[in-house]
Amino acid sequence: MVNAAPTGTAAAARPDGAASGARDHFRIAIIGSGPGGLSAAVTAARYGVKHILLERADHLSDTIYKYQKGKKVMAHPMRLPLLGELPFALGRREEILANWQRVASEAGVNLRPRSELRKISGQRNGFLIALDDGLELTADEIVLAIGLQGNLRRLTVPGADAQLVQYQLDDPDEYRNKRITVIGAGDAGLENALALCGHNEVTIINRQLDLSRAKPGNISDTERAIRAGRIRAYHDASPTRIDEDGLLIDTPKGAVQLAADVIIARLGAIPPRKLLEDCGIRFPSKDPASIPELSDSYESNVPGLYIIGALAGYTLIKQAINQGYELIRRLAGDPTEPADEKLLRECFAAAFPQRSVAEVLDYVRARVPILAGLSTLQLRETMLDCQIRRFAAGEVVFRRGEYSNSLWNIAEGAASVELDEARPDANVRIGAGEFFGEWGLLSGRRRTATIVASEPAVMVEIPLRAMRRLQTSVEAVQRELDRVAIRRLVHTTLGTGRPIAELEEVVAGSQLQRYKAGECIVREGDEVDALYILRSGSAIVSGMQGGRVNVLNFVSAGSLFGERGFLDDEARRAATISAAIASEVVRIDAASVRAALSHVPQLRGVFNKAVKFQLEQTLRATVAQAGRTEATTRATAIADFLVSKGVGEATNVFIIDETICTRCGNCEAACAATHGGISRVSRELGTSADAILLPLACRHCETPHCMSHCPVDAISRAPSGEVIIDQETCIGCEKCADDCPYDVISMVSAGAGARGKANWLTWLLEGVGLAGRNGRTSDAGDKSEKKAVKCDLCRNTGGTPACVTACPTGAAARVEPEAYMTWLREGRARL
Amino acid sequence: MTQSPEAATGEMHTSFLFWKSGAYAKRALALSVATIVLYCWHRPAGTANGGTLLGYSLGVLGLALIMWLAWFGIRRRNYGGTGLLEGTFSAHVYFGLALVVVATLHTGFHFRWNVHTLAFALMLLVVASGIFGVYGFWRYPEMMTRNRAGMTLSTMARELAALDLTCRQLALAFPDEVVALVMDATAPVAAGGVWRAIGFDRVQDEKRRLNMAVISRVRRELVEGRGVTPAAVLPLVQSLTQRLTLIERLYRDRQLRLLMLQWRAVHVPLTVALLVALLIHIVVVFYDW
Lengths: 831, 289
Fold this sequence. Notes:
heterodimer, A: alpha+beta, FAD/NAD(P)-binding domain, 5 domains, seven-stranded mixed beta sheet, 23 helices, disordered N terminus, B: mainly alpha, 2 domains, about 75% helix, elongated
C-alpha cells in the first residue's frame, strides 16, 4: 500500500512525470475527493485496499472548499445514521474541511492532487485512466465521485470570456459600491444577489417570467428587495453580448445595455456529458441535466465503473459519505447493509415483523401502483418517510373535518369512504391497489369524508413531503395522482348521488389549470364556456354594483362555480372570479357539461341548488348592506386588504379591529405568558388597512410553506388544524423561517424570556414579576442554540387561544377566513 | 381547532360594552333597581344607616362587589384560562357602576369628616377614574386609528426622519438665517414625560411656532425676491408642512395612548387606598359595636 500524508497542496502521491515507465496499478481508483470519494478512500485505506484518490484541485473537497467563508453546513437527513470513519455533523465549512483533512491523513489515504481526468477506457479488471498531465494508470474498479459543481454551466454569448465574468461568489463582503449583474434566478443567483445588494447596485437577469424556480424563502426575500428598490430585475430576459464595461440583454421590451463592474453567472451545474460519454457511460435522455443510469449497487452500464454522490442523483453530503463507505466495503468483500437498512427495518417492523426489508420493498412495489415505477434507491428513500400500517375491520383511518395531508394507499384489504353519516348507502368502497386522501394532500383543507377499514387492511401512508418530492421527480406519480383526483373531485362536487360512470364524459372534458394570485378565472360579461371546480387555493367572486366593484363571495377549495350559465343558455357570466392566491382549478369544458345535463337530469338539480344557495347568500348580504354604502365600501376594502395579504391560503387568522383595540398589549402579554415568555404575535410588525390590523402571527396555511424544507421533519399539522413546530426535534436551521412568506416564525434562544426583576409598584400596575403571569422578558439566554417558534393556537390549553381570551375589549378574533368574509359581507363590521 | 365562541356565532369584534347584547348591563341595572326599591320600602327603626339590617346587608353586598371588582386586577393577568376576559371586563364595568348605588344606599346619606366617608369618597373616585377609562376605551381607539392614517409608529418615525433630512437639504438653497431656522425646527425633541404628552406642557406648540416661523420667513424671502424662486420655495414649504402634520399626529397618538391607558395609574392606587380605608372602616364599625 502506498501511503502519503494528504496535507493539501504538498501531498502528491508521487512526483508528476511518473508517467514514464510501467504504469501503476491499483485495485480501486477513486476519482473526486468530495464527501463520497473521500469516504470511499478512507474506507479503502482502512481495509488495506490498494487505491488512489485523484483530485482535480490542489486540496480536498473542492465544492465545499469553495463554499462561502464560515458557511454553516447542514447534516441532513438527520435521521439517517452516518457510516464509516469520515466525521460529519452540522458545522462550519472550516471545521468540516479540517476534520476531513485530519482523518484522511490518519487513515493513510493515497491522494494525488492536481489530477484532472481526461479519459477512462476499458472495464472491470482492465481500466486505463488517462490524466490531463499525461499520467496513465490502471485499475480493477473505478469509483466516479466527481459531483456536478466541477462542471458549472457557462455563458456562451460573445464576450463570455471577459474579465468581469465569474461563476461563483466566495465572499460577498469583498464587494463595495460595485455595479453587479447576476445572471440566473435560481437559488444560487438569488442568494448571491441578496448577499450583495446591501453595498452594491445589483441587477438580476432572469430567463423565466417570474422567480418561481427558487425556494420560497429566497423568492420572498428577493421580491421584497425588488419592491424596496435594492435589487433591479429583468424577467424574461437573457444576455446577448458581454463587453468590458457591461452587457447587452434582450428583454420583452427590446435590447437594453447594462453597465456592470462584475457579472456573476449562476446557471447551475450539469454532468460533464462529453467526458462521461467518452468513458462509455450512457445517459437515459438528451436532457443535459439528466444523470447516468445506475444499478441498485451504483454500477453504471460500464462494468466495474461505479458512480456515487451528486452525479448519481444524491445531492446530500451524508448520502454521499454513506455511499462511498458502503460501496468500498462491498468491493473489499466485506459487504455491509445500507445506512437506511436499520431504519427501514424499524419502519416495517410493526406491519411485517417477520419479513426482510427487501421482501417488504417488493411487496410495496407490487401492491402500491403509485410507487411501482420508482427505482430501488428512490423507493428506499421514499419508504423512510412512509408508514405501513395494519387496520382491523371497522377501524377509522381518519375522520371528516380533520386536517391531515398524507396519501393513503391500500396494499391489502379495502376501505369504506363515508361521505355522509346520515346516508350509509352512499358509502364508496376502495379496494387494494387504490389510494385515498388525495384531497387533503392537494388542497390542504379538512378531510371531506371519514375513512374506515371495511375489512382487515394493510395501508401505506405517504406524507406530504415525500409526495411533493415524488411529484416533482417522477412525472408518472403526478399524472396518476391528478387523474384520480380530478375524477373524484368531479364526482363528489357534482354530487348527484349517481355512480361515477354516469359522469365519465364530464371527467373526460376536465383539465387542470393553474392560476397565479390575482389572476382572473372568469370575467363578468364573458360567454359561458366552462364549469369550474376549485381544487386548491381560494378565489374572490366580485361584481359591479352601482358603478363600484363589490366583493360578493369568497370561495375556498372544493367550490363549484360558473354553473349558473348552464341553467339559462343565453346567460353571460354574472360575476368576475379571480384567484386569491396561487390556485388550481379543474375546468370542465361546456360541451361536456351540456351533454351530461341532457342525460343525467340530477345534474340540473345540483346546479339549481347551488344557484339558489348563492342567491340566498347574495340576497342576505344585499339586505344587510342596503343604505350602508360606506360600511359596504369598507367591508369590500377590508376583504381586498386581507386577500392581498395572503389570507386566502390561511385556515385560521388573527385579526384585530382597531376601532375597539385599546393597544393595551394584553394579547401579546398573554401569548408570552403561555409560551415561555416570548410572544409569538406582534402588533407593531403587522399591517393594517381600514382599521383592521393583521398582526404578525401564524395563519396556519392550507399548504404550509414552512413544512416544505424542514430537514428533521419537526413541523406537522395536528388533525385539528394547527401547524406546530416540535421543539424537541427542531435543530434551529431557520429554513422554515426563510420559507414562511409571512415572516411569522422567529428564532428564539433556549432560556430567553426569563423574567425581569420587579418591584411592588410595577407588579401592581403592570404585573411584572407575577410568577407565570407576565410578558416582560429579559434578553438573557443561551444565544448559541436557537429554535424556531411560532403560534400553535394554544393547543395545550385546549380552548380559545390566549390572545383572544385575554382581550378585554373584544377587538381580537382568531377565525377561519371564510367565516370572517361572511361576517364582512353581511355588513357587520362597524364603521 | 376549537373556534372561539364569538367566531362561531359571528359575534367577533364586538365591544365589551355590548357583550352578549349587554347581558351584564341589564343585570347590574336590575341589581341597582332592586336595592333602590328595597331602600324605599325599608322602614328602619331610626334613620336609614349602615347599621340597620338593610344597611348592614348593603354593606356586605358592597364589600363583596369591591373585592370582586378589585380581583379583576389579578384576573386580567391570569392567562391561559378558557373564559374570555372580555366578559369579565364587561361585568367589571357595569357592576362597578352598580356599586355606586349600593354603597350610597349603604351610607343612608350620612356623611361626616371621618374614615367611613373617606372610604366612600375613595370608592367614588375609583369609579370616576374607571368611567374616564371606559370613555377612553370607547372613543379613543377609533380616534387613534384615524389619526395614524394606516401608518405604524415606526413608519411614522421613519418618515419624519426622512422629512427632516429633506427639509435640511432643501434649506441649503436659502440664506444662512433660513438654514439656521430650519435646523432649529428639525432638531430632535425629547419625547418628554407624561405631563408633556397629556398636554400640560406646550412643547409641541413651541415646535409648531418654530415651523410656522420658518414657513413665513421663507415666504418673505420669496416676496422680497432675494434671488429666491417659487420653484425653490414650494418644496421646502411643502416638506415643512408635511412634517408639521406628522409631528402633530405623533403627539396626538402619544396623548391618546396615554389618556387611554395611563388612567390606570390613578385607578389602581386609588383602589389600594380604598381597600385600606375599607379595612379601617370595618374594624372601626365592629369596634364601636
